[in-house]
Each structure stands twice: as structure tokens, then as C-alpha cells.
Amino acid sequence: MLLDLIASRISKDLAIDLGTTNTLVFAKGRGIVLNEPSVVAIRKRDRRSSEVWIGEDAKRMIGKVPGSIEVYRPLSEGVIANFEMASLMLKFFIQKVHDRKAFVRPRVIISAPAGVTPVERRAVRDSVLSAGAHEVFLVAEAMAAALGAGLPVTEPISSMIVDVGGGTTEVAIISLRGVVQSSSIKIAGDRLDQDIINYIRKNFSILIGSTTAEQIKILVGRAAGEEDEEEVDVKGRDLMDGIPKTITVSSTDINYAIADSINSIVDTVKQALEQCPPELAADIIDSGIVLTGGGALLRNMDLRLRQAIGVPVIIPDDPLSTVARGAGKMLDDIELLKEVAAR
């Protein structure tokens, strides 16, 4: 009976990849149980009541809502930008995972970018606590990604992880349960979308939204290579006369639009290697760089890094869920968790 009670309590524990673009939740013993956009939409009826949409339902409303509905993205560049909306979203996701049981108070492991300040770290912790958790552990996003990718983080062998998410790109060299070298830049998937928006506005005088830009990036975006030209029709608003218009955009256009941001990511990886002790650098030459996050799915991103740095680049299975799966592994290794958790 006691063992059953303990197992029941443990099974409520969660690991959360709280991303700028998407939030993933890993439940102990169940794996990834939730993957939804980090978006909240609210229609306020009066002071006491409001109508709320969270996740996929809210994302579908971006750019299409009347003035009575506000759409929020609670995170910006990897950190909480709106505490109230972040808490509301986390509470909804936690209760959804636990079948709407409001009394559940799980232990929660949550990932955070390397560059977060103590104030931002406290905001994350407070948001998760206010969402119903009874205990919160913050772990470095790169460490969680390395665990999720199956890298030997507990051994005296260096591993390099490059996690290109929605709001930030995390670059880290890990050995013996610690981060030897790390850096975080606020250039990632969302910046690439904005690059596409700016390029099309400047060169075609057409205004598009972030959802359309993301679709263009997925369809014809690439980080490198001279493949056959691809094209996609894009619908937007003509800035000259204000009427809807359809244009055709090529893969070369998008490659040019995102080139500066891709170069910044590559330069960050180079700088991390330049500052790495030579013995650890030798390990990376042998084992390569592991590329995770949504940015790993950008066509030829691995090729671009390999051409620039000259070492193998590996993309693990399902790179989008690597951070959540790695944080989830810490639910089974409390000693490792306590050692790597941010204070």
C-alpha cells in the first residue's frame, strides 16, 4: 500500500520545456504528454468573468481576432514576458495533463536558457509555483537537451550541444555533469520569421504575419546549399494600396532573408569552440556537434554548421522534444537533478 502511494505521488511529477514558441510536458512513466503553442487568448466580459483559449486554439486566432480579444505570447526570447499569462497557461497545461484535477501539486523540472538573470529565474519559478507545483527545479536548457540526445554527460568526455529554439539558441560544452562553456543568443526561430517578414515587406511591399512567415520558412527555407530552386505563393496585404495580393517567393529569397541570423548562430558556435580547452575540443572533433530544437529542422542547418566548423553534426530523433525528454530523465535521477539545478 505504501509503495503504491509513493508510486502514485511520483507519477504526478512533470518536466516542462517552457519554450517561446511551444511548451512540451513530459510526465514520469508516460513520456511526452503535451506539445502545444505557448499562446493565450482572452476575451474579457466584465470584471469577474472572461473567456480564455490556450495553446493550439489560441494560436489559430493570431492575427484574426476582433478588438474584444487579446492574444498573448507569455514568453519572449526564452524568458517570461507576462507573468500573469504564463501562470495561467502553465496551470492550464498542468491540469490538462492530470485530467483537470485541480488538487494535484506535482514536482516540476523546468528548463531555462543559460543567459537568464536571477530576476528572470525567479519569475519562472514563481509562475510554476502559482500554477500549482509544490516544488520547482530549474535546469539549464543545454544540459537537458544533452541528456535528451543521449550524450554521456556524466563521463569525462566533452559533448557539444547546439539547441536552436524559438526564442534563443543555446550553445554548450558539457563534461562530468557540468557545463564547461556556454553561451545563449536571442537569435532563433522567431528571429528567422521576423527576418522573412522584413524581407518581404522591403522587397515586395507586402505585409505578412508571423504565422505565414513560419510556413514559408518550413516550406522553402534553408540554411545552406545550392539545391533546385523552390517557390511558394504568399498571400499578404499590399502596402501601396492596402488590398490583398499574392506573390511568389523563392528559396533563394528566403535563404538571403535569413542569412545574417544563420551566420550569427554559426559565429556563436565557433566562439564557444575557440574558448574550449584543447582536450575537450579534441573530443568534439571525434564525437561531433549535436543539433537540437526546432532550428534543427531547418533544411541544411546541419550542413551549414559542418561546412563552417569542419566537424560532424548530428541531429537526434525528434529534435523538437529533446529538451523535454532530457529534463524528464532527471525525474529518475534526483541526485543528478540536485547537482545541475540552478540555485
List keywords for this structure.
343 residues, alpha+beta, Nucleotidyltransferase, domain 5, 4 domains, 5-stranded mixed β-sheet, 12 helices, 18 strands, 27% strand, flat, disordered N terminus
Walk me through the structure:
With 343 residues, the protein is of the alpha+beta class. The protein has 4 domains: 2-35 and 82-143 and 323-340, ATPase, nucleotide binding domain (Nucleotidyltransferase, domain 5), CATH 3.30.420; 39-72, no CATH class; 150-187 and 263-319, ATPase, nucleotide binding domain (Nucleotidyltransferase, domain 5), CATH 3.30.420.40; 189-257, Alpha-Beta Complex (Actin, Chain A, domain 4), CATH 3.90.640.10. Helix content is 39%, strand content 27%. It has 12 helices and 18 strands. It has a 5-stranded mixed beta sheet with strand order 3-2-1-9-10, sandwiched between helices. Strands 13-12-11-17-18 form a 5-stranded mixed beta sheet, with helices on both faces. Strands 5-4-6 form a 3-stranded antiparallel beta sheet. Helix 5 (141-148) packs across helix 11 (322-329). The longest helix has 24 residues, at 251-274. Mean pLDDT is 89; it is low at 1-10.
